[in-house]
Every structure is written in structure tokens, then in C-alpha cells.
Amino acid sequence: MNQKSTLIAPNLFKLSPLFLALGLNSALASEIEVIEVKVQKRSQSVQDVPVAVSAFNGDMMQQLRIEDVRGLVDLTPGFNGKTEDSFIDALSIRGIGTNDFGIGGDPSVAIFTDGLWAGRNGGVQMSFYDMERAEVVKGPQGTLFGRNAIAGGINITTNKPISDFEAKIGVTVAQYDTQEVTGMVNIPLTDNWYFRAAGNYITKGGWLENIAGGGDLGGSEINSTRLSLRYEGDNVDAVFRATYEDREQDPSVYWTEVNGIAKDKVNIDYGKGKGYDRGEILSLQANIEFTLSDEYLLTSITGYKSYDFAYLEDFDAQPTFINNYGQDQSVDYISQELRLNYDGGGSINGFVGISVYQEDIDATFTNSYDENALCVAVSRTDFADFDGPALGCDDANWETYWEDDIDPADLLTNKAETNIDILKNTGWSVYGDITWQATDKLDLTLGGRYTSDTKDMSIEVLDSGGALGNTFVFEWYTDGAVTAKDTWSDFTPRVAAVYELTDNVNLYANVAKGYKSGGYSTFGIDNDGSQEYGGPLASDSKPLAFEPETTTSYEIGAKMMLLDNSMQLNLAYFTYDYQDLQMIIFESGSQLVKNVGEAQNQGLEVDMHWTPTDNWDFRLAGAWMDSKITKEIEDGDGTLGNKLPMAPELSGSMVASYFHYMDSGIVTLIAQWVYQSEIYGGPGNYETAKVDSWNELGLRAMYESEHEWSVSLYIDNVTNEEYFERGWENADANNQNGFGLVNTFVWPAKPRTVGVSFDMNF
Length: 762
Description:
This protein is mainly beta. It has one domain (10-370, 412-761): TonB-dependent receptor, beta-barrel domain (Maltoporin, Chain A), CATH 2.40.170. A hairpin with a 3-residue loop joins strand 15 (220-232) and strand 16.
């Protein structure tokens, strides 16, 4: 179904006064160039795909300074949860996400770069530069994307080498000691071989004051390089890519109301130079397309990705040494996918494919603290168990609670509870998708994927010693490693239909099953209760397993090209039932992944792009969601009817651009506005971990010369809006019963920032 440049029938404008008002200006409108996407494994107009997709081309991503996956969040309706660190445990699409920051589970939002699964925490947040496009596909995408894409999929495509010489360089300088350099060169080697090199360097200084001292927080340094080689023959198109990224930045910082400080400052003991977020990432891949005939195209995607990730943060958000969380992991991932596409030019087209992968993860986790500081903190959060606040571990109030005398000589001031986790993931899937043009107006699609995932998990918990032993996370230690291995599999079907109501209006509907495999809690061992506090655990103990989660999603929508193709307007309504949610639950300081209940969600999304004249361009994205937990996590816990975490009722953005054409170039003025209503930090919906609604304004002015250079000035967060990224429910609604931890918020918003950029094309 191809969108055509035809006039809209007059009766369409009777649908609403808005269309009537817009129609008065249609004679001056500029026709929109619709983005081509490959959501369904073949090139299609985004308007023909029977699923909600937000697509961004490379020019737009550069102009709006979208630096990585997190930059897509603000501009995509229904996509939430950007963070400053290297974790993706806040990302959610339509309220579906996972807060698991360990290794035993999988992300709910599957991210792919040039067809290769981008990985998990520590390896996903690679920089965007020299990009072709990015596609955010919402709803379960197991059939099309695989690898547990229960919430949706993000498809990132980098530029291929081409047959012409070109080169670019860009330089940015901004407040807070920010410098950025980006470059690209494309060189045709022969008639068939082309080479492309691109890279960027970003360094940012600290901007967030830490009252405890040590220097401002928020600094980072990123080096990234991508080398691409392409062979383009009569029947073969092969692209070989190698990408390396080295990143070092401050870890997440936390704010809590119990410190009694302003929201634009933090007060933590692990300040500048103590915490860290480091990653070294290498990605190698070969994407080869074989044209077997006019009807058949065979695609091979071979990928290898490895990364080392080291992380240390002050998790307790306080100036005393209560809990500092560390994670040090090494990941090796290899995959192979083969896909055969058929398009005979008739009423049938589709594809079949097979994929296999292996992922090896070695990780060490530490929870460090001063034993005296922990005893004091526990007595203040769990005061019901104490006669009064304890002054330390050898205080009478603590010893009554502990039911034992503490020898001060045994107390440790820098103690680490350590667990070593080793995980091997292997899996395979077979999938297929067929589209039948039933009539000139109606396309029907049927697809499905059978997935099998095997996880082999090993956990060794070391004896931390000291006066308290292992108390903060496991409460015992192991005599060597405990292991478990299991396989989970499922079939996820998809049915979709597209009806061409007019040449410019497509209606669609789809039903899809979503599935994410089971796994193991990074910080949990299944203890049958026979082992009392201390350790070691019985030799037959096993890592704590959790079951798969599933969802059944229904979606209907309309994709329209209106006003002489000057307006692209896409609407979607969705609803789903969500079973056996995998979620971290904090219990006495430990973070256990469990299947914690059921939920429902419904929502409306709007995605509009309108160019009323050659001088104006408007982009509007908005989402409304109504989520609720329909089965309590634990009987009587009060979560029934609560909203899902990271699922705001309202969110949206608008980008307005004005173009002034001159003989020597173009002046562009851009205003970007983002809004998000309140979001909760966990299933308890506690006010002490709820992020209030916020909105942020950014401005940009750019001059593009006809001589291939441009200069721009930008201002982020013009009004100095104060808000937080997210909240964490570590304790109850009153900041009690958290075993020393309280509810916290992550990263105050960065204040107003002014910068200037210069770009040159050759």
C-alpha cells in the first residue's frame, strides 16, 4: 500500500474543526518525505507498517542532539525511563520494563544495532554518530525482533559506506567544561569496495554539587570509533563493521529527603573520584545480503560483542558509609542469523529465519559498608525492633536486637559482602512472517517465533567476616559455588491487518503475544529455611529461579497523510494483560527478582509531523496510559490497583522549527518541549519515591551556509526545571523497614546549559 500525493477528499475535513483549520493553509504546505523503515525485515514506508513505530532519520538525530538510546525517550510517545548511567533498568515501553540490574534476567526493551542484539547493562549505551536512522517499535516484538522483546524493540542503523567520497567534522563547546568532536570520512577504494571511518570524542565536566565535598559530579569522557568496509557486487552486498568504545563517567547519584537538602544538590560519602562507571566495548559484525533471484533475498547477520563493565556508586544517598554498590562484569556475546525474504511482486510476500546465540557473563558484585554505620542506620529505619536508636554495633540497643554481644575488635570499617556470578546463556529461535494482499485494500499478516533459551547459573557467596558476617544481602555464605540450569521456551504468534481506507489513510490492527524467558536472581539463593543465619549453605542449594513473564497485547491504529501530504498523523490505541512480572523486590537489603503479580495497561498515542509551509516544521508526540496492578505481589501488601513503575499517565513532546531562506544559506530556529506526568519508583507507589510531573524547554539556532558549513547555538533546560530521573523504593511509604536504606531519587536534572557547535562537510 503506497501513499500517493493526492488531494484529501473534502468530507475528511468535516471530521473535526482542527482539520478544517489546517485545510485552509494546505495550498502553502510542503510535502513530507516519509521515512522508510525495516521493521518487518523489508523496506517499507513507516505508514504501511501495521504497528506503532516512531522513526528518526540521521539528520534529525544530529540536529536535536540525540546522543544515544536515551535521547529517543523524550521524542517517542509511550517510551520512558532515560538514565545517566550505563544501566537500562529504567527503560520501559508502554509501562513494560524491568528494574533488574543484575545478570540473571534479560532486558524487556530489546535494542539492536545493524541487526545485532546490543546487549544488557553496561554494553547497550553506545554513542550515536554517523547514523542512518533509528526506529522505536512499540508492543511485543518477539516475532520480528526476538530475544525477549516483550515491551518493544529499538532498531538502530548506522550509515553504510557509499561509492562517493565524503567527509564531515563537527566540534561542540558548552558550559561545564564540555567539548565534543565528531568526524567521518568515506572513501571509495574500487568500483566495488568502499571504506568508511567515523568516530567521536566527548568530555564533560561535573555540574552537580556534593555537599560532602570532593568536587562536582556528573563528568564523563567517551571515545568511540567505527570502521566499515563494504563490497557491493551484482548479487552481493556485504558490510563489515568494527566498533570500539571506551567510556568513563561518574556513576548514578542519589538524593533523599531525609538529608533535608535542596533538590539540586546531593550529600554522599562517595564523591568525586571515588565512584565510577567504566566500560570498554568491542563489536564486530558482518551483514551480507545475497540476491538469489528477483524473488528471493538471503540475509546473513554474524555478530560478536564483548565488553568489560566496572561500576561503583553510593547507593544509600547519605554521607555515612551505609551501602556502596559495586559491579564488575565481563561479557562475550556471539550470534548468527539467517533470513530468507520472498517478494514475487504478487499478493504474497514474507520471510523465514533462524537465529542462534551464546552469551557468557562473569560478574562480581559487592555491597560495602562500615558495620557501625550500618547498625546505626538499621536502628533508625527498623526502629520497631529497637528500644531506641543504636549508637553502633556494640550498643545495648543493637545487641538486644542482634541477640548477641558484639566485640568492638571484630568491627570492620570497610567491609564488602561479595558474590561471584557466572552465567552462560544459549538460545535459538525459528521464525516466519507472511503477508497476503487479500484485496486491493486489505493486507493480512501472520507471523510467529518459537524461542528456546537455556541459562546455566553459578553463584558463590564469600564469607565477609567482621562482627555481623553476611547480613546485608544473603545472610549466609556458600561453600564453593551453587549452580542451576534450566531451559524455557515458548511460541509467540502475531496477527495483523492493514486496510487502505483512502490513498492517504491506513487503518491497522494487530494482536501479539509477548514472552520473556525465566532466569535467576543475581542476589538470591533458594534456601529451604533449614539453614539458620550465618552459613555456609547446604551444598544442594540452588540460585533462586523465576519463571517467564508473558503478555497479550491488542493494538488498533490509523496512519494518515493529510493536507496534501504535508501532515503525517499516526494514532494508536493499545491494551494488554501482563502475567508474572519479573521485578526486583527489596527484602532486608537484598534485591531479589521474583514473579510478582499481574497487571493491565491501556493507552493512546499520537505521533504527528506537519510542514504547513516551507518555513515551518512541527513534530508532536504524546501518550496517555492507564496502568494498574491487578494481582497483589504479596497478600495484603496494598499494591492492588497501583500503577506500574515508570509508566506516567501523560507524556509528550513538541519540536517546532522555523526556516529562513537566504541567498547564502538557511537560518533555522528550533524549540523543543518535553513533558512527563508523575511516575512511581516501584509497585508500592510511595510518595517518598515518586517523581513529580515536569516539563523542559530547549532552544537551538543554526545557520547552514551554502558552502557546506554550519554553526549553531543551543540552550538546554532553558527554565532550569528541577526534577529527578526516577525513584527507588528501598523502604516502605514512611522510609521505614529498609534495613538501613531509605527511598531515594536518581540524578537531579542538569541545569540550564549553553553550547555552540560548528560543522563542516567536505
